[in-house]
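To illustrate this point, what follows is a protein record of this kind.

___
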Amino acid sequence: MVTVVYVDDETVICDEVRDALSYLPCNAHVFDDSHDCWEFLEKCDGKVDVLIADLTMPKLNGAELIQLCLASFGGSIKYILVSGRMETRESIRRILPNLDRVMSKPIKTESVLSFVYE
């Protein structure tokens, strides 16, 4: 079974995503704090299949979190960056060329499922 990690600083969105992921055949871990998410990833030594991170978060944004993961765990994780502003898609790709996918909010569980099992 795949392990999916989702992080977004908006608690309401985390609750919705947690509920949506509960219907998928995966081990889901949802965080509303990017530092808590990073601590989890360090403890499990990056042994997750997919990391979905919101771009705009305080302290450590999604792009920074993914850069940390790439430096620590390499390409073993599939990375999705989520943004409410899709005009930033190309600038995100320039910053993170190893990014697997950029998705717009609200994310659709079908899109996540198809990406996870590609």
Q: What stands out?
A: The mean pLDDT is 86. Strands lie at 2-7, 26-31, 50-54, 78-83, 101-104. The domain at 2-116 is CATH 3.40.50.2300 (Rossmann fold).
